[in-house]
Amino acid sequence: MHPKRLLLSATLGLGTAIATPAFAAPDVGGVVSGYANLAHAMYEDSLFTARNLELAVDKLIAAPTEANLAAARAAWRSARAPYQQTEVFRFGNPEVDDWEGKVNAWPLDEGLIDYVNVDHYGAESDENPYYTANIIANPRLKVGGKTIDASTIDKALIGETLNEIDGIESNVARGYHAIEFLLWGQDLNGTGPGAGNRPATDFDPANCTGGHCERRAAYLKAATGLLIDDLAEITAAWGADGAIRTRLDGGDPKAALTAMVTGMGSLSYGELAGERMKLGLMLHDPEEEHDCFSDNTHWSHFYDVRGIHNVYLGQYRRVDGRNVAVPGLTDLVAAANPTADEDMRAKLAASLARFQILADTAERGESYDQLIGSGNKAGNAIVRAAIDSLVDQTKAIDGVVAALGLDKIEFEGSDSLDAPDKVGK
Predict the structure, then answer these.
(1) pLDDT of residue 425
(2) What is the reported pLDDT for 216?
(3) Distance from the CA of 305 to the CA of which of 17, 56, 63, 90 falls in 20 to 30 A?
(4) 3-class DSSP state for residue 269?
(5) CA gap 244, 86 in Å, rounded
(6) How many CA atoms lie within 13 A of 91 on its CB side?
(7) How far apart are CA 332 and CA 404, in angstroms?
(8) Distances in Å between the alpha carbon of 396 and those of 266, 382, 407?
(9) pTM of the predicted model, to two decimals?
């Protein structure tokens, strides 16, 4: 793709109808190949928008103004839209699941990276000795007998030394959410209005706020570059000679269909409905918000749902406006059991409508962390309805499994859905 800067509208593709595919003869091989083509297009768009983010970050570092910070934040939001649509490829493909933690690990203990408000965040953690390590402020750090030389902030320090240091998953040093924290800072508003509000002067050595502005800029630059490297890796894996495509093309078509449906069901149920939504709603906890620094969670959730649609229907709208249409699971299911296909398509339309309501509500000024707040009955109801639509959708996916003659699939679960009495204990 041409490297010109292109910022993706947050609402790109919202008007795309669930159209009836035009593929007359269902063919398993064509559906599997189309699945790989969709994945490659989505990851390629993720890579393209990450490169646009890098252009905006470079401009911010060169001229740290509020306007340039706003532009970098807009580029980050735009980069999230195609990436979130790829999450449907995660659970059925072990290569993606192994890789995903490099770019979208969450939640993170942000005090590892930079300064935090300890009144809000806390000064220490029994589980994490690096809870307030603040690498940006400390070129050399000794924790638990281990000395870290952080005099040079680069990709190697972030990706190889800091990320998940000591095997602690919340030590997230790389990926979208580390970059999000650097661009927005902490959201100190709880379930009240407002996102993070880091000033542009945090990146300005001449008028530095927050201290260590050159090191903060270096961290942001290196983390963005590392994100691009990671996305280039996974894009290539789905390419013509890539490892994932080669496995799918050369493997059992039934196993490939199982991977496709596993990704849809596990994302729909355990991951999105459960861990990312129901848990936070039960606890009324803004720390359980996925894009918690930027208040972008409504769009992250929306595009997760859009990704499930893409795979079933064989459709994707690219960031440059092109529509990709390939044979989809719908073609196979409609041929085998038209009723199951109609039910799946109806449930997809219902979930998208619920998440459109959630997104529209947030865009009108009531962000996701406010919607899940204690006492917000109307907001809670909007989130609960979206969760319920995902549970209904997953039941329809069970019908897809049966129609395709696949062995029963155990989708990812969540205590918040399956054993709510265990939550918080």
Answers:
(1) 61
(2) 98
(3) 56
(4) helix
(5) 14
(6) 23
(7) 7
(8) 13, 21, 15
(9) 0.93
